[in-house]
C-alpha cells in the first residue's frame, strides 16, 4: 500500500492530547533524553527556504513492493467566512508566563490573548532573549502558562527544533516503531517511511547514539514528517542537515504540506518570515502586538529595536 495512503488512514487526531501526553510522561523527572511522545525534529530555516525554493518534480513515496507512486495531497483546509468563528485553531486567552532569573523576574507573556486559525499562517518577530522558544513550547504544550488558558482544537506539531524524544541506546527502527505506537499510527508504516526518507541504510538498525549529527538530524526530521499535522511550529534556532538527496525528498514533502497546513514561525529577522506568513505579530515587553501584514509588524519591530542588538 502506498505510504501516503497508509499515512492518511492512520492519522491520529490528538489536539490537546499532545501536551497532556508530554506532561504525563514527564511529570516527575522531565528527562528530555528518555522516550517521550514527542519526536526530535531537526531542520533549519535556511534549509527549509532552500527546500521550498528548489525546482524539483513532486517527490514520490515507495510502496511496500518498491513501486513509486505519486504523493497524495491532503484536502485543502478552507478558512472561515467573515464573522464565522473558526472551529480548528490555536487560542491563547489571558496567558501569562514568567521566570525567576536569580536576580529578577523575566516576563515572557503578560495577559496575552490571540488566536491562530487554520489557513492563516503567523510570523512572530521578537528580539533574542525575549522568550521566542518559550512561546513556541507553550503552543506545543511543552511549557505550561502561569495563568490563563491555551486551547488547541487541531493537530499541532512539536517545534521543529525540539531536542528530545529519541533515545540514543535504541536503534532508529526501535525508536520509530515506539513513537508510532504512542501516536496511534501503524508501526510498519512509520518505520518504512523513515527508512525511505532518511536513507541511512544499515545504520537504521544501529543505536542512534552511534550516528553522526547529520544522520540523527535526518532520522528525527523523518520522524516528524511521518506524523501529519494541521499546524507546524518553527523556531528559528535549529541545526541543519546538508544531505542533498534527503533535502530533495524532504523539501518536496514540506512544500506539499505547507500548501494545505498552517505555519507559526518565530524569528528575530523579518526576512525569515516572508516565505511562511503574511500575517505577523511583534513580541515586546511581554505583549504580543498583532498586525494584518508583515510590513506593519516590521515597522513597530524596527522602532522598538532601534539601537538594540537583535
Characterization of this structure:
It is built from 10 helices and 10 strands. It has helices at residues 3-9, 17-25, 45-53, 132-140, 172-182, 187-198, 213-226, 244-260, 270-273, 294-304, and strands at residues 60-62, 68-70, 89-100, 105-117, 122-125, 147-152, 231-235, 262-267, 279-284, 287-291. A 5-stranded mixed sheet has the order 7-8-5-9-10, sandwiched between helices. It has a 3-stranded antiparallel sheet with strand order 4-3-6, covered by helices on one side. Strands 1-2 form a two-stranded antiparallel ribbon. Strand 1 (60-62) and strand 2 form a beta hairpin. It is globular, with a radius of gyration of 19 Å. The termini are far apart. Residues 4-47 and 49-77 have low confidence and may be disordered.
Question: In terms of topology, how is this protein built?
Answer:
Blueprint: H1 3-9, H2 17-25, H3 45-53, E1 60-62, E2 68-70, E3 89-100, E4 105-117, E5 122-125, H4 132-140, E6 147-152, H5 172-182, H6 187-198, H7 213-226, E7 231-235, H8 244-260, E8 262-267, H9 270-273, E9 279-284, E10 287-291, H10 294-304
Parallel strand pairs: 5-8, 5-9, 7-8
Antiparallel strand pairs: 1-2, 3-4, 3-6, 9-10
Helix pairs in contact: 3-8, 5-6, 6-7
